Amino acid sequence: MKQLVEGFAQQLRDAMDIGEKATVTFSGFKYNNVVIAGMGGSGIGGNLIQSYVADKLSVPVVVNKGYTVPAFVGRHTLFIASSFSGNTEETIAAVRAAMRSDASVCFVTSGGELLRIAKENSMPFITIPGESQQPRVCLGYTVVLMLYLLHHAELLDNTFKTELRQSIDLLEELSGSIRVQASALANAFHNKLPMLYVSDAMEPVALRFQQQINENAKQLSHVNVFPEMNYNEVEGWQQPENLFGQLAVLLIKTRYDHPRVHLRMDLTKKILEGKVQNVLEMEARGATFLEQTFHLIHMFDWVSVYLAELNNVDPNTIDNINYLRGELSKE
Question: Which residues contact 27 (CB under 8 A, 6 or more apart)?
């Protein structure tokens, strides 16, 4: 797993190369909305795309994580299916529903049933390398290639390419310091329940972190966002007091947070410092949204790997997930 995490910057570079060489064509008519379908390590890329394009696309982007699709899906929907294996049952079901609704369906996958559907129906697709057999370590491929699909569909301009190149440069420049900071965070989270707080704009980054802690370190975690948590969860920090010693809080800041969100974080920190020993704070590096996003993702991936070592678990195994898949396949 360490080797796969270490190669993240190169993965972004390889993904750009795949995207530049991809030959995909779309119908050319105007799309009224975009739906991105995917689960787990493949699906979180959709959430990241949704945040990134929020101020760039003139049409809404919805992330679909389930067997069904929204009623608005139709002929003027660009429907992007993201599945590393191509055999994710929820995504396959959603694709078939989108096809029945006459949506324009395209794919990012390494193979499986989705690639068969794409080829059989002459639908646009971009394939990703499948050697790792680990969807969660292929986030660079899925995010970058979905951006290229949006670009080929004439919804996104070329700006993302420059930001991707800058992100790669940043990760390579900061590789050493990222690992040092990640190691310190892992030690702070060891034998604790990490409580991750972030702005609404960066919620997908925190969700990705939670997922990596879950899958790699075999450890529970919790995520909430500002400003919403100030209207409910902050009041819950009163009971049960006997659990507070088992918690570690991380406030994640970026330059893309609303100024009032930073004020809320600072005020909330004062409340939490009276209850929890570890109230940590970190700020993303980078000049653009993508740079800050990938900086955080790469650091948090390292945290999950170091935490796996501290927990004495194998980050490559997913026994509970495999059990569920096996039992579901019997039905």
Answer: 104
In a domain, 317, yes or no: no
Q: At what angle are helices 8-21 and 289-311 packed, to 10 degrees? A: 130
pLDDT tens for residues 110-143? 999 999 999 999 999 999 987 656 778 889 999 9
SS3 label, residue 179: helix
Tokens (6 digits) for 112: 């499986």
Number of domains into which the chain is organized = 2
Q: Round to whole Å and give the CA distance between 115 and 113.
A: 5
Q: CA-CA distance, 127 to 111, in Å (whole number)? A: 7
Question: Which distant-in-sequence residues (6+ apart) come within 8 Å of 253 by Cβ?
Answer: 199, 262, 265, 281, 282, 283, 284
* 152 and 6 together in one domain: yes
d(CA 188, CA 281): 12
Instruction: List the domain range (segments joined by +) for residue 240.
Output: 166-311
pTM given for the model = 0.94
Question: Last residue of a domain, which of 100, 124, 157?
Answer: 157
CA distances from 21 to 18, 139, 152, 154 (A): 5, 19, 12, 17
Model confidence over 302-317: pLDDT tens digits?
999 999 999 999 999 9
Does 175 lie in the same domain as 152? no
Span 145-163, average pLDDT: 96
Q: Do the Cβ atoms of 198 and 316 come closer than 8 Å? A: no
Q: Chain-wide mean pLDDT for the chain?
A: 95
- Domain CATH number, residue 275: 3.40.50.10490
